[in-house]
Amino acid sequence: MNKDNQEAQSAQNIEHIRHSLAHLLATATLEIFPDTLLTIGPAVDDGFYYDMDFQKPLVESDLKSIEEKMGDILKQWSKLPDGERGFRHKEVSVDEARALFANNHYKLELIEDIAKKGEAITLYTCGHSIDTSAQPTHPKNHIPEFTDLCRGGHVEDLSEIDPKSFKLTRIAGAYWRGDEKNKMLTRVYGIAFGSKDELQAYITQQEEAKKRDHRKLGRELKLFTISDLVGSGLPLFQPKGTVLRKALEDYLWELHEPRGYSRVWTPHLAKADLYMTSGHGMHYLADMFSVHGGTSKEDFYVKPMNCPHHMQLFADNQFSYRDMPVRYFEPATVYRDEKTGQLGGLTRVRSITQDDGHLFCRVSQLHEEASSIVDIIKTFYGTMGMLDGYKVRLSLRGDDKENYLGSDAVWETAENALTEVCKSKDLPYFEGKGEAAFYGPKLDFMFKDAIGREHQLATVQCDFNLPERFDLSFVNEKGEKERPVVIHRAISGSLERFLGVMIEHFAGAFPLWMSPVQTKVVPIGERQFEYAQEVQQQLRAKGIRSEVDLSGDSLGKKIRNAKTEKIPYVLVLGDKEVETKTVTIESRTGNEGAVSVEDFLVRLKSEIDGREL
Question: Which of 93, 207, 371, 403 gives a 20 to 30 Å CA spacing to 450?
Answer without folding.
Answer: 371
